[in-house]
Amino acid sequence: MENQRSYESAGRWLSTVHRYGYMHLSKTFDEYGLGEGQVKFLMVLFEKKEQTQEQMANVLNIDKTTTARAVKKLEDEGYVTRKPHATDRRSHLVCLTAKALDMEPMIRSILKDWTNTLTEDFTDEEKVIVVGLLKRMATNAIAKIKQEEGVKEK
């Protein structure tokens, strides 16, 4: 019985939700040339139509290499373009195309449907609580990794 309880960790269940969400969303978005990873970047751009890759990486807490790869795929599929930044010559702005803007309602609907699936039998209060707790867990995870990286740099 002790072994069962020791495996009842938040990480285990978060991993399960992530894995199955990735499978569902990857399959759903595949016909549009999108992976679940690229959709995150589109969602950030839907909020603010033009951003640098660095801004998007910071919002999503994703490294710059992964961000560059995702933006390149989105560009190759016709969802974004890049243009020179007006004031920072080292940066480019990533901009949504008409193709991406046309798909925004559908993408939002698919993601909302998945959220509704995950929280199907939750009360409105439980939905607010779980999102708050997950945000706190993410903040704790980020802080831990940053702390570990800081220790390694010394």
Short structural description:
By secondary structure, the chain is mainly alpha-helical.
Attribute tags:
3 strands, three-stranded antiparallel β-sheet, mainly alpha, 7 helices, MarR family transcriptional regulator, DNA-binding, 71% helix, 154 residues, WH_DNA-bd_sf, HTH_MarR-typ
Structure description:
With 154 residues, this protein is mainly alpha-helical. Helix content is 71%, strand content 8%. A 3-stranded antiparallel beta sheet has the order 1-3-2. Helix 2 packs across helix 6, helix 3 crosses helix 6 and helix 4 crosses helix 5. The chain starts with a helix and ends with a helix. The mean pLDDT is 90. Keywords: DNA-binding, Transcription, Transcription regulation.
